[in-house]
From TrEMBL:
GO cellular component, one term: cytosol
A GO MF label: phosphoglycolate phosphatase activity
BP GO terms, sorted: DNA repair
EC number: 3.1.3.5
Family annotation (NCBIfam families): HAD-SF-IA-v3, PRK14988.1
Domain of life: Bacteria
Record keywords, A-Z: Hydrolase, Metal-binding
The protein's enzyme class: hydrolase
Record-given protein name: GMP/IMP nucleotidase
Length: 220
């Protein structure tokens, strides 16, 4: 069980994909649906599609364009926004994430979403899962021009929100992002242990693992 010193936390910063929402939607789209539609629309085999996509994915991982639908639409010559709608039925909340959000909101914490998701992806998901009312702000890294992996994102966030990193909690499912937050000085960090409900638990490295949101509510 994760026991947080809630009396030392004023601001709660939350990722979206894999943290509040099941990462299965994104993993399925990028690893299964997109290669299949790429093959169909470009008239190549599924194997050839994967051979062409894999180097592009590896080259852009962790950079802002990795998360940008405009970039991928141009790069792949595909209507990526429209393709994402084809699997939108898979968008789902992680268990008890809404219970946690309601509890920290009632407790008077400042709650801010910080996501690398492109604004179009964010809008698509918020149309299906009612998350916006729980948050003071919904911030995409595209607003600042830097992904969360980059120190400049955190400098921009600090300038925008004027929050105290020493009195903040940040929850994410990506270790490079959590390390970037730690280097900036965010004091309380948790890594989601099972961001994709179909893939089972993953290694959370040096960070304490979060499995059940209900355990975080203790002591609020």
């Amino acid at each position: 069980m994760v026991l947080l010193p809630w009396h030392e936390i004023d601001t709660v910063l939350l990722d979206m994909d894999g943290t509040l929402l099941d990462l299965h939607y994104d993993n399925h789209f990028w690893m299964e649906h997109l290669p299949q539609r790429y093959a169909e629309l470009h008239g190549v085999s599924r194997t050839m599609a994967e051979m062409e996509l894999q180097p592009l994915f590896e080259r852009n991982a962790g950079q802002l364009q990795w998360y940008c639908l405009d970039f991928w639409s141009t790069e792949l010559k595909l209507p990526v926004r429209e393709l994402k709608l084809e699997t939108a039925h898979l968008i789902a909340l992680r268990p008890d994430a809404d219970t946690f959000l309601a509890a920290i909101q009632r407790a008077g914490k400042r709650v801010v979403m910080i996501t690398n998701a492109h604004r179009d992806s964010l809008s698509l998901k918020l149309e299906r899962i009612e998350l916006a009312p729980y948050f003071e702000r919904l911030i995409s890294s595209h607003d600042y021009g830097f992904p969360k992996e980059n120190r400049q994102f955190w400098d921009a966030l600090q300038a925008d929100l004027n929050f105290d990193p020493a009195r903040s909690l940040f929850i994410d499912d990506t270790l490079p992002v959590l390390r970037s937050a730690r280097d900036f000085g965010v004091a309380h960090l948790l890594a989601v242990s099972e961001p994709d409900s179909r893939k089972g638990p993953k290694d959370t490295g040096e960070f304490e693992a979060l499995g059940d949101y209900r355990t975080l509510i203790e002591g609020l």
